Every structure is written in C-alpha cells, then in structure tokens.
Amino acid sequence: MSSDNRIVRVIKGRRPKVVVIGGGTGLPVILNSLRKQNADVTAIVTVADDGGSSGIIRNYINVVPPGDIRNVLVSLSDSSPSFLDIFQYRFDSKDAFFAGHAIGNLIIAALTEMRGNIFDAVQTLSTMMNVDGHVFPASNEPLTLNAEFMDGTIAAGETEISGQRKQIKHVWVTDTDTPEETPQAVPPVINAIQEADVIVLGPGSLFTSILPNLMIKNLGEAVCQSHAELIYVCNIMTQKGETERFTDAEHVRVINEHLGGKFVNTVLINSEKVKPGDLDYHKYDEYLLQVKHDFAGLQKQCDCIISDNFLSLHDHGVFHDGDKVATEILNRAFQHINK
User: Fold this and answer.
1) What local confidence, expressed as pLDDT, does residue 1 receive?
2) pLDDT at 6
3) Label partner for 327 (CA 20 to 30 A): which of 2, 56, 60, 221?
4) Which contiguous run of DSSP H or E holds residue 5?
5) Residues of the chain under the 70 pLDDT cut
6) Which residues in the chain are classed under CATH 3.40.50.10680?
7) 3-46+138-337, CATH topology level
C-alpha cells in the first residue's frame, strides 16, 4: 500500500466504502484483501444457489442457501484460525444427512430458524465472528434463478441452467415460495449501495453468481441509480454452461444488457497467460478456456480498462490475485472520493 493512499485516508477521515456483489469461490479472496487494505466492505451475496450442501439444506428446511454466505463471513472474520477451521469443516461421515455438509452451513440454517429470517441470522453471526464489514444476503427469501436460452427454451435452477450447455439469452429471479411476488432486497442492502464509493461485481459466475443479485428489482435499480463507480472484475476462465467461448467484452455486454444501459464504468482484466498444466481440469471441471480479450469491444461497453497480471496459481487452480485486485479497486475509490 502506497504512502499516497494512506494520506488520502487521513485527509478524508474515513475508509473508502466498497460494496462487492456476487457469490461463488472468487469473492472471498477479493473481500479478504480489501479488508486487509482497510476498506469499509459490504458484501452482498447471492441467495439463488441450489447446488451442493447449500442446495440439500435448502430442500430439507427451506432456508436461503448458506454456502456462499459462509465463505464470505470467514473472509471478513477476525475470529481465531482454529474457530474458522471448525466453522469451515465439512463432514466426511457416511451418514445420509451429514455427509458433505459444512458445519458453518448448519449453523447458519439453525440461526435462520432461531431469528426467523436469514438477514438477522447473518447479522447475529457477523457479531459472533467479529466480522470487519457487513455481510448482507441479497434477499431475505430464497430465490429461484430462471433462464431463457437463445433457442427459446426456459430452465429454472442454477444446476439445471448450467447443465443445459446452451447459450443463455437472459436470466431473472423469482421468489421460491411465492413466485407471484416480486423479490426485493431489504433496506440495509439498498442503503449500502447508495452510500458506496465503488460497487464491484465479481469475480464469479456471470449468470449464476452476479446477475441473480442485479435481477432483484430494487437492488438492480439502486445500482443503476448510484453515483458510485461500477467496477467489473472479469473472470479469467470461461465457464461450462454459462460463458462458453465468451470474450471479456461479451461478459460486460451481458451485464449492461441486463441492467438496461451502459452502466459498467471500469473493467479489470487479467493479461497473464494461463499455461498448460496451471489448471487441474478434473478438480475444477466447470472451467474451459481462458477468456479472450476484445479491447475494441470493451471500449464500446465501458469507460476504463485496467489490464494487468492478476493471476494467482495455487491448489492446482487459477485464481485472481486478491491483493492486486483490491489495490486497483481502492485506487478507483480514492479517485471517486476526491472528485
């Protein structure tokens, strides 16, 4: 962190307010780095997941799927490493119910029943876990993701949509329990967006982690009406059943089209090549090829393109370098504050 950045913080007398919207495995890396670099972070997390342990718990006791929320809580928590290890522990028991479940998912589900809703449950748990920042479920109710494909067919549910391996035309969300009602984000979510210096989308699955949040009517409207800079952290790899053969410009085009205008201001793209052997395709079987660059297309979709080596290789996977991405996000936030 440069001395200039520290001076800006002193002059302004507050931490930059960064709202990060998404879900999936890429989000916690960015959040943790933003926290380390002293940002005032609010994570708005998707509640439309229907896969894995989260999906099974959702089907059993009808709560918002907790998996993404669990990982985000850990990324912003100041709790002891031993506690976080327990919270993240996943049963390997052969028991029909516990096998594969993370303890944290069960705790979130239990607190949701105790508090009566997922939002209050997560706020209680945030206090217990000494979370530095805010973790807000995008909706207080479980949502179902719906998609129309280019061939006119329709599918519902994240797993079903990606499993079709078809090109997606657009997505929308419905209330799982009362489909006739329009999904809404709770007031603290909207307030955080309105007060943000920058709003960050991703990294994460375009159609199943990022767009489900923006398709919540009042949440998407708040993003479009915000004076904050809207930053998209483009994925490094294309994803099976979602963004096959997509360029970086096509990722941004889809976001803008779903928002109904040219709203993305800045795009962060990785310039480093992913080499053969960098990625274990058996372990990370949802990934396909590296996202190709289309700078001419990007210039039509956004105002600023930041291209750098954002690649981090570990656990036989391809990830964003959280510290580098966080630094660029905060640089944009400081510029916004100083306008």
Assistant:
1) 40
2) 40
3) 221
4) helix 3-12
5) 1-13, 49-65, 95-97
6) 3-46+138-337
7) Rossmann fold (3.40.50)
- Whose tokens are 């052969």? That residue is 94
Contact in structure between 172 and 257 (CB atoms under 8 Å): no
Query: Which amino acid is it at 200?
Result: V
* Residue 165 to residue 167: CA distance in whole angstroms: 7
Query: Would you give the DSSP letter of residue 274?
Result: P
What distances in angstroms separate CA 307 from CA 204, 248, 294, 310, one per listed residue? 18, 11, 12, 8
Both tokens of 23, joined, read 């879900």
DSSP 8-state assignment for residue 183: P
What is the predicted pLDDT for the residue at 278? 93
Mention every residue, 6+ apart, whose C-beta is less than 8 A from residue 130: 77, 78, 79
- Give the global pTM: 0.91
What pLDDT score does 174 carry?
A: 95
Q: 116's torsion region: left (phi>0), alpha (psi -120 to 50) or beta? A: left
Q: Is 24 left (phi over 0), alpha (psi -120 to 50) or beta?
A: left
